[in-house]
Specification:
This protein is an alpha/beta fold and 201 residues long. It contains 8 helices and 6 strands, in the order E-H-H-E-H-E-H-H-H-E-H-H-E-E. The radius of gyration is 16 Å and the shape is globular. Catalyzes the interconversion of 2-phosphoglycerate and 3-phosphoglycerate. InterPro entries: His_Pase_superF_clade-1, His_PPase_superfam, PG/BPGM_mutase_AS, Phosphogly_mut1.
Length: 201
């Protein structure tokens, strides 16, 4: 059996400021660093063979702190553009509350949660899923088929898109899915990558 662990990065300064982040490269807050360490503490029973993160600093730093907690600093780490957050286009850097006042709650929720509707100049969740799943199939799935234990630290929408694929979620289910900062999900997979067990820590 292989183990796949998905972790959302800890709270970022943009999360704290309530702004659309997307591809903006922002640091973790002190709370975010604490969430990363807490995620690591939850995973102490596991040893990882490979680790993956996005190229954005909030993802890379969260992974670094997790591996420090696990005393597994020698695990090979792969940082990938494909694991970046959904691109929020013209909304990036805008305060969410102010954007709601300008465009209305219904429109903003559609931009944030919809599978097929894109923010202005941004990606749909469907497009995010296509790049994330392609990377998963090319780079991560072969490791899992070898029975290896893999840690992936990424972003809320990226992980929503990947979980849709892994768990066979419907559009309605993925649109309603919320993943907290520092959230940890563990999958036990057989050699065909069928899920034997999954749980949140």
């Amino acid at each position: 059996m292989a183990t796949l662990v998905l972790v959302r990065h800890g709270q970022s300064v943009a999360n704290l400021a309530n702004v659309f982040t997307g591809w903006l490269d922002v640091a973790l807050t002190p709370q975010g660093e604490a969430e990363a360490r807490q995620a690591g503490a939850k995973l102490r029973a596991l040893h990882f063979d490979q680790a993956y993160c996005s190229t954005l600093v909030r993802s890379r730093r969260t992974l670094e702190l997790i591996l420090e907690q696990l005393h597994q600093a020698t695990v090979p780490v792969h940082a990938a553009e494909a694991l970046r957050e959904r691109m929020y286009g013209a909304l990036q850097g805008l305060n969410k509350a102010e954007t709601i006042r300008q465009y209305g709650l219904t429109q903003v929720n559609t931009w944030r949660r919809s599978y097929e509707d894109a923010p202005p100049e941004g990606e749909t969740l469907h497009h995010t899923q296509q790049r994330v799943v392609a990377y998963y199939e090319q780079e991560i799935a072969p490791q899992l088929r070898r029975g290896r234990h893999v840690l992936v630290v990424s972003h809320g929408n990226t992980l929503r898109a990947l979980r849709m694929q892994l768990e066979g979620l419907s559009v309605a289910q993925v649109e309603a899915l919320e993943i907290p900062t520092g959230g940890v999900r563990v999958y036990e997979l057989d050699s065909a990558l069928a899920i034997g067990q999954m749980r949140d820590l």
